[in-house]
Please model this.
Amino acid sequence: LLIVDLESLDRDLESAFQELPGLWAASHSAFSYIARRYSLDIKIVHWEPDESPSDEQWRKFETLMGDRSPVQMLWEEAPNEETARRLATMGVSVVVFRTGATPPIT
Model:
């Protein structure tokens, strides 16, 4: 049953990623495996969800993204409000994908 469940999850993820083409960003290098598996154009920025990026980090992010859109950004947890708001003004959609690396929220 586990193999069947994993194969189903793989098909669901493949379908979801195909529906969201374009550039992806990720807050953590743990998402590199997803990029490889689903052929995503992904840029890793190493941001923490509970910390606001510095002005320098924002400048680097804007340069990295350039004028490409749409852009989705993977996070292991939802980013803080300030970061989410600024990403939204840039047209970046936040996608929370819990990797299982952190304890579950209770």
Notes: The mean pLDDT is 90. The two ends are 27 Å apart (CA to CA). DSSP finds four helices and four strands in the chain.
